[in-house]
Specification:
The complex is a heterodimer of chains A (226) and B (833). Chain A is of the alpha/beta class and 226 residues long. Chain A contains 5 helices and 16 strands. Chain A has a single domain, classed as 4-Layer Sandwich (Purple Acid Phosphatase, chain A, domain 2), CATH 3.60.21. In chain A, strand 5, helix 3 and strand 6 form a beta-alpha-beta unit. The two termini of chain A are 29 Å apart. Chain B has 4 domains: 205 residues, 3-Layer(aba) Sandwich (Rossmann fold), CATH 3.40.50; 157 residues, P-loop containing nucleotide triphosphate hydrolases (Rossmann fold, 3-Layer(aba) Sandwich); 51 residues, no CATH class; 212 residues, no CATH class. The longest helix of chain B has 18 residues. In chain B, the strands form 5 sheets. In chain B, strands 3-4-2-5-6-1-7 form a 7-stranded parallel sheet, sandwiched between helices. Chain B has 34 helices and 25 strands. The chains are: A alpha/beta (226), B alpha/beta (833). At the A-B interface, helix 1, helix 2, strand 11, strand 12 and strand 16 of A face helix 19, helix 20, helix 29 and helix 33 of B.
């Protein structure tokens, strides 16, 4: 596993190919859009998706916590697919998430799917978090940003390669804004060429596609032209 | 039942006579028997199917549904409704007729529910919808007859599964309704009779066979100058094809893929100096465009239409003078079906010309001509019914009325595709419909079905029923994008999403018979303008190619083994085979010839399996994995219908061991689970079974936004419940479909101990075509996607578009570097930064 270092707003960050960010100076791990209990949310509307999405997401989160041993974890909103999500956690998943939140300082940023704080799980809740030169929030605030880390759009990118295009979730960053891919097992993606993402990066930037154990970096402009 | 006088007079007035098979059907219907009528095109099948109903209704007029007609094509139902109106009007019969399909208006649907017509013409999908309605029992109770058209095109696929289940339901609602199945001539008659039978037993159906028409006149035409070594498009024959079109009144030029249709159409128009009216017809064109072509064809305004299987079935045009088949026919039954589209008079031979595109196809065409002359039909026997279709059906039944599982199980087993359905599988599917059937009992509160105290199963809410009815059907489209001419121009049709993703601005591509330049992708529409230059791209469509049938493959192998039959071949083919025999050997009927030879810096392995492209594709993926393990460093492979070619960095040795049957054991599971074939199959299964919705009531967002990507679901389900019923259904589908595992396994078993390995110093004549084949594939799993991404990233860096990643060695390794070489697996060391 090879993380990619990124100098961002004067800070040195590490992009993890699993789709998370580690900030060594603060011992801080950030993940976006866990969408826990998306499966059961769909089930309540009649689409009986397999119910293990929360377990799968927590498996991946546990691996990240082992790898980085962070002092604090920032979940960048939409941590639960809906407001009642935390109440629908299976007992095993609830215990597991509880243990994680007890071992690390968790900050739950509110998202559009889960504006209310999760119930029954430790950690602080906030609309946004400012730390040094960086600000963590769910959705990017339109207009010029300074050191903003966000999620919300679930960026993915398609790269033309020999034998056809390859689409992967990705980070996208310019000097001032860094958008994380969605981390949840059932979270889909929005192509970075979509105007909703394009408007947030008017001066281009770089995308980092998630690979199996490393990241693949491309200039944003190259993807947009394609 | 005999022909009443007024009907006989009507027949006589048109110069018609009741044919023997029509009489036989009439008699069987009079006895209340179910019938399978096998007759060639133009044999008056449809009239035979409806005559008993018309006579019955004329004798005893009544209100309510009498006869249900089901056809695989909407257009066919509409056409037949028109044809039926003629005797009904001429004879003043008290018979009401209506069609019902996805296009039927809401007002008309309401009318049909309130006052059902005597004869209703519909499709399998619309029937599935009708039987899911609460009024289904009342509507179908008076049903006296069911006519199933084109049975051969339905039995054995998922639409056929859906129809079989619908018929079983009708049998429960109207136990005395007789059935008439109408079919073209087929290889497997008993399974077809079983399909029509009310109890899945072939013996409970009277099979009536119409006298065969005059044998078709099938010939072969080769390009005038040079016989191509490879390629499947047949463009070299375009001048000859145009000459044939010019010489005849109306021609259908059948091709094998939509891409081939586009290319050949362009090529013909380049040569078409006198602007003969030649049109194009395939399944990705806008329906209006297709209808215009069909209309023009019916009115005799066209001299030729270049068509894919979109014209295999359909309305009889009568006036078609000849059929050209460009490219390999792939199977005798399919060829005869296409040939039958020409000249619908039974007393004159249909004329057809085969136009092979390369040397192997010459062999195949000759084999098909011999097979057709011998009446040796082919095609696989119908496979068991899909569990995904069963899931859709069970929910539909529940939406109509409560049922007892024991009764429904018994009912379903009376449908031939499900005659061998295990109770365990039925129960698993029922559980899936109820609450997902997951090993984790967390969805108890969202179950879609509930059981009452008598054990009867009910649907939980109207909303679930509405949702179900919006998602009925077994045809799952690949994600498609519309193609529009200019920002406000007309829609031309659809291309697969993946193809659109390959296009960059300014790219030229060929579609709907036009040369287009790609402008932009706007949401779900590809915008293009006429014109463009450079080598155009041609959209390909997944699953567009049919594999060579086993029978035809067998004939080709037999011919190869018998040089005395070669004089039927053109001289270049004879010479080609002769040299092959001298420098290597010919593939035998019961053995497997494998050649290995070096060329450039690579080693090639060519296996002459003749098992069809799908099976070869699977074999290629499995063999390359195995060669990797054996240390031969495979680099890529290419599969045709006849041959598999693999190239590697190291000379492959011990070839017989490579082809041992254990390949299916150790490599298969690992490969299959990750493969894109499996993912695509799972997506279809999940959509049909109702796990992923195509449409959601009240959803204004696009389907893309509401549904969860099926790949994500597949990954989670595979990891946590690998034996889930939908994964079982996926594996079953993949085994018979895109992977053709059954055929591959049979071939491997057959050739054990009979692998003939020829170590050659250079390429053999028979191997040349496969080396020239376009569309070579490298093994594509996730690891390789990463490799391809790496390549793309490297290119971007080299072109100065991207910065290289900074040189960076983790500190823990840096300390070690001084003392010993870099550890092979740096991921073992924890990063300290």
């Amino acid at each position: 596993m090879t993380p990619a270092p990124l100098h961002f707003a004067g800070e040195r960050l590490l992009l993890d190919p699993a789709g998370a960010i580690f900030w060594p100076a603060q011992g801080l791990l950030a993940v976006a859009d866990l969408h826990l209990e998306k499966g059961s949310s769909a089930a309540s509307r009649g689409a009986l998706l397999p119910p293990w999405d929360t377990r799968a997401t927590l498996d991946r989160l546990a691996a990240l916590l082992r790898r980085w041993q962070p002092a604090q974890v920032v979940a960048l909103g939409d941590s639960f697919h809906d407001d009642g999500g935390s109440l629908r956690l299976a007992p095993g998943d609830l215990a597991r998430l509880g243990a994680m939140a007890a071992a690390h300082r968790f900050v739950w940023i509110g998202g559009n799917h889960d504006p209310a704080p999760p119930r029954g799980i430790a950690g602080e809740t906030a609309a946004e978090l400012r730390l040094g030169r960086l600000v963590f929030r769910h959705a990017a605030r339109p207009g010029p940003a300074g050191g903003e880390l966000c999620g919300h759009h679930h960026p993915k990118a398609r790269v033309a390669a020999r034998g056809g295009g390859i689409s992967r979730p990705c980070f996208i960053a310019d000097g001032r804004r860094l958008m994380l891919p969605a981390f949840g097992a059932y979270a889909g993606g929005l192509d970075v060429t979509d105007p909703a993402i394009g408007a947030l990066f008017p001066r281009g930037g770089r995308v980092f596609l998630l690979g199996r154990d490393r990241l693949f970096s491309f200039p944003y402009a190259a993807l947009r032209a394609a | 039942m005999t022909l009443p006088a007024r009907f006989a007079d009507w027949f006589a007035a048109r110069g018609w006579r009741l044919r023997a098979h029509q009489q036989a059907v009439l008699e069987a219907a009079g006895r209340g028997e179910s019938v399978l009528l096998i007759a060639p095109t133009g044999g008056g099948k449809t009239l035979a199917g409806f005559l008993p109903s018309l006579i019955d209704l004329a004798a005893a007029p009544r209100a309510g549904l009498h006869t249900l007609y089901v056809s695989p094509l909407k257009a066919l139902a509409a056409d037949i409704a028109r044809n039926l109106m003629r005797p009904v009007q001429d004879l003043h019969l008290p018979v009401s007729i209506a069609t019902r399909s996805g296009d039927t208006s809401a007002a008309e649907r309401k009318r049909q529910r309130e006052a059902p017509p005597n004869i209703l013409l519909t499709t399998p999908e619309s029937l599935a919808l009708l039987i899911s309605l609460p009024e289904a029992a009342a509507m179908f109770a008076p049903l006296a007859a069911v006519v199933i058209d084109e049975v051969h095109a339905l039995a054995g696929n998922k639409r056929g599964d859906q129809l079989a289940l619908g018929l079983a339901r009708l049998a429960a609602l109207a136990p005395h309704a007789r059935r008439i199945g109408l079919s073209a001539t087929v290889a497997h008659r008993d399974p077809l009779a079983a399909y029509v039978a009310p109890d899945a037993a072939p013996a409970s159906v009277r099979v009536i066979t119409a006298a065969a028409g005059v044998a078709p006149d099938i010939t072969m035409m080769l390009p005038q100058d040079r016989l191509p070594w490879a390629g499947h498009m047949g463009l070299a024959s375009a001048p000859d094809i145009l000459a044939r079109i010019r010489a005849a009144g109306t021609t259908i030029v059948f091709v094998n893929t939509r891409a081939q249709a586009e290319l050949l159409f362009q090529e013909l128009w380049k040569l078409n100096a006198e602007t003969l009216p030649i049109a194009i017809h395939h399944g990705s064109l806008e329906p209006e465009q297709r209808q215009r072509v069909e209309q023009a064809m019916a009115e005799g305004k066209l001299r030729a239409v270049v068509a894919t299987s979109s014209l295999d079935l359909g309305i009889d045009w009568g006036g078609v003078d000849q059929v050209l088949q460009v490219g390999a026919p792939k199977g005798v039954s399919r060829l005869l079906q296409r040939v039958g589209r020409a000249n619908h008079r039974m007393d004159e031979p249909s004329r057809a010309v085969l136009v092979p595109a390369n040397r192997f196809e010459v062999l195949e065409c000759e084999a098909a001509i011999l097979g057709a002359a011998a009446g040796e039909l082919d095609g696989d026997p119908p496979r068991p019914g899909g569990l995904d279709v069963l899931a859709q059906h069970i929910l539909g039944v529940a939406c109509s009325a409560p049922f007892h599982p024991d009764d429904l199980y018994a009912e379903i087993r009376r449908a031939a595709p499900y005659a061998a359905l295990a109770r365990e599988d039925f129960d698993d599917v029922l559980r899936f419909v109820e609450d997902g059937g997951y090993a984790l009992a967390s969805y108890e509160r969202w179950r879609r079905l509930f059981r009452d105290s008598q054990g009867r199963v009910h649907v939980r809410s109207d909303r679930i029923a509405r949702q179900h009815r919006m998602n009925i059907g077994t045809i799952v489209e690949e994600p498609m994008l519309k193609v529009r001419l200019g920002p406000r121009g007309p829609m031309l049709g659809e291309v697969e999403e993946y193809f659109a993703n390959l296009l960059t601005v300014g790219d030229t591509f060929m579609f709907a018979g036009r040369l287009l330049r790609f402008l932009r992708l706007r949401e779900t529409t590809v915008e293009a303008e006429p014109g463009g230059d450079g080598e155009p791209m041609v959209p390909a469509y997944a699953g567009g190619r049919l594999p060579l049938t086993t029978n035809l493959a067998d004939r080709v192998r037999t011919m190869l083994q018998a040089p005395e039959t070669w004089q039927a071949f053109p001289a270049p083919v004879q010479e080609w085979l002769g040299v092959q025999r001298a420098v290597s050997r010919l593939p035998g009927r019961h053995d497997l010839l494998v050649e290995t030879f070096p060329r450039g810096d690579r080693w090639y392995l060519v296996a002459y399996c003749f098992e069809g492209r799908n099976a070869h594709q699977t074999l290629g993926l499995l063999l390359t994995r195995r060669m990797q393990r054996f240390g031969f460093q495979p680099l890529g492979f290419v599969a045709t219908d006849y041959v598999l070619g693999i190239w590697s960095a190291v000379q492959p040795a011990d070839v017989a061991r490579l082809f041992e049957t254990d390949m299916l054991g150790d490599d298969l599971e690992a490969w299959l689970a990750e493969s894109s074939v499996m993912r695509r199959t799972f997506r279809n299964v999940a959509v049909i079974a109702g796990l992923i919705e195509r449409q959601h009531p009240g959803a204004e967002k696009s389907r893309r936004q509401v549904t969860v990507n099926s790949d994500l679901i597949y990954d989670v389900l595979r990891r946590h419940q690998p034996d889930h019923v939908l994964l079982r259904a996926t594996r079953a589908d993949a085994a018979g479909g895109l992977t053709d595992l059954g055929r591959l396994a049979a071939m491997l078993a057959r050739v054990q101990g009979r692998v003939r390995h020829m170590v050659l110093s250079r390429v053999s004549p028979l191997a040349v075509p496969v080396l020239l084949e376009v569309g070579r594939e490298s093994v594509r799993d996730r690891g390789d996607d990463d490799d391809r991404l790496e390549e793309a990233a490297l290119v971007a860096e080299a072109l100065g578009e991207a910065e290289p990643p900074p040189l960076r060695v983790p500190r823990v390794l840096r300390a070690n570097l001084a003392r010993r070489p870099l550890p092979s697996s740096p991921r073992q060391g924890r990063l300290l930064l």
